[in-house]
Amino acid sequence: MSAKTNSWGRRGSAAATIAARLTFENLTRHFDGNTALNGVSLDIEPAETICLLGPSGCGKTTLLRIAAGIERPDTGRVLFNHQEIVGPSVFTPPERRGIGLMFQDFALFPHLTILQNVMFGLKGFPAIDAERVAISTLERVGLAHYAKDFPHILSGGEQQRVALARAIAPRPSIMFMDEPFSGLDPRLRDRMREETLTILREMRATSLIVTHQAEEAMRMGDRIAVMRAGKILQVGPSEEVYNNPSSLFVARVFSEMNEIPCRQTNGKVETVFGSLPVPKTATTTTNTNGDELIVGLRYQSITINKEDSGILGRVIDRKFLGDAALIEIIIDGLENPLKVRLRESIAPLVGDEVNVNIDKRKALVLKSDD
Ligand code: ATP
User: Fold this and answer.
1) Are strands 274-277 and 268-271 parallel, antiparallel or unpaired?
2) Is 238 helix (H, G, I), strand (E, B) or coil?
3) Could you tell me the distance, in angstroms and rounded to a whole number, from the CA of residue 17 to the centre of ligand 1?
4) Does residue 250 form part of some domain?
5) Where are the beta strands (DSSP E) in 92-200?
6) In a mutational test of the pocket of ligand 1, which residue from 27, 28, 30, 62 has the highest number of ligand atoms less than 8 Å from its CB?
7) Residue finishing a domain among 185, 220, 243
8) What's the pLDDT at 281?
9) Helix axes 127-140, 156-168, angle to 10 degrees
10) How far apart, in Å, are the Cα atoms of 270 and each of 13, 50, 262, 265?
11) How many CB atoms lie within 10 A of CB 21?
12) Are 27 and 114 within one domain?
């Protein structure tokens, strides 16, 4: 084990594990007529971190529970390293999958010491080895000095670190995390997220993380899988999914936008800011002129200037947001005011006339429905 100082102030790094490939093939799951998963397929590379992102009820937790062995699918298969662990006639129980689990309600055992809590995940080890591994894992999360104490004396963030230690102590090749940081306050959450990511990388664990926060998914995921109504709509690195969303729904998951309806003519849409090409992702099967599309302009992708270039508009509202200001501008030819997020120090005042520009490369031309 290499010795280095980490930002939780203790020494050591998490021992590497043998990373595993995780594959979902066409999984479905229904609950009393409700569809939780509707044909989910996904291939996760060894040591890759994937974030499942989507609104409440889209099936994220169900997918994770099926992968972890807490739930069974109606149909479909789950494979670890190309080997079927869930299928029509196969079901490998959770304890034989070599996985680690961490949930929002981290549920430490209150009657066990912190050391015993971490050792709980090491039942297959001889006691002396279990204790050694548990202590070194507690050192890794900076809490070895609490080993003999009981969980109630720890803060929420510290308890979460014990839960992380318990999950990683057996060196799982795959980690499943369901909203693991949502119970923490924002500052603690940022730190916990960064540290957890560092540990997952040290371990080379393949990781599947459920979140409904786009920023969390972008910070943590090598790739993001955006889910809606039991399906994965798009999967890719954060830049790709953010900059080239396959649908209006995916674009909206990442940030608020101005949405301008327009119609397709010969592979283009006309807007007050000029014409924009229609990408393949927005092309309908019939692809006829007159198809209704949406031009999406994220608030921060619009600029204003004082020179005489751009489209003239007038500021009708200005909201102070600390370092930024949210401006509303009315423009001839646009039904709704355009919302623009600018640095506070350069944001115009209500009543000002401004020239508005868009970066055409950042303008999204999207199908209006999935
Ligand atoms: P959240 O972010 O709120 O946790 P989610 O995306 O994780 O949501 P799931 O928990 O997977 O969504 O739920 C998907 C759908 O399946 C929902 O409609 C939910 O009500 C339903 N569902 C999940 N588990 C059960 C269950 N055990 N019994 C009945 N319905 C269930």
Assistant:
1) antiparallel
2) helix
3) 31
4) no
5) 99-103, 174-178
6) 62
7) 243
8) 75
9) 130
10) 55, 37, 7, 8
11) 18
12) yes
Q: Which tens digits make up the pLDDT trace of 30-78? A: 999 899 999 999 999 999 999 999 999 999 999 999 999 999 999 999 9
Residue located nearest, by CA, to atom 5 of ligand 1: 57
> Rounded to whole angstroms, what are the CA distances from 306 to 157, 311, 334, 341, 368?
48, 11, 21, 16, 34
Which residues are paired to 137 by β-bridges?
none
Nearest CA to ligand 1 atom 16: 36
pTM listed for this prediction: 0.89
Q: In what order do the strands lie in the sheet with 292-298?
A: 274-277, 268-271, 257-265, 292-298, 364-367
Q: Would the CB of 212 count as within 6 Å of ligand 1? A: yes
Residue 70 has a pLDDT of 92
Strand partners, 226: 53, 234
Same domain, residue pair 109 and 208: yes
Measured in Å, residue 33 CA sits from the centre of ligand 1 at: 12
Decide: 60 in ligand 1 pocket, CB within 6 A: yes
Q: What distance in Å separates the CA atoms of residue 323 and residue 344, rounded to the nearest whole number?
A: 5
- The tally of domains found in the chain comes to 2
Identify the domain containing residue 145 by its residue range: 3-243
The enclosing domain of 23 has a CATH number of 3.40.50.300
**Token match 């998951």: residue?**
253
At 330, which CATH number? 2.40.50.140
Torsion of CA 320, 321, 325, 326, to 10 degrees: -100
Q: Is the CB of 62 under 6 A from ligand 1?
A: yes
Q: Is the CB of 31 under 6 A from ligand 1?
A: yes
Distance 57 CA to ligand 1 centre (A): 5
> The dihedral of CA 356, 273, 333, 294: what is its sign?
negative
As a whole number of angstroms, the distance between CA 291 and CA 7 comes to 54
In contact, 326 and 364? CB cutoff 8 Å: no
Judge whether 119 lies within some domain. Answer: yes
CA of 140 to the centre of ligand 1 (A): 34
| Residue segments in the chain with a per-residue pLDDT below the cut of 70 | 1-17, 106, 284-288, 306, 369-370
**Is 245:256 a contact under the CB 8 Å cutoff?**
no
Please give the structure tokens belonging to residue 75: 């149909």
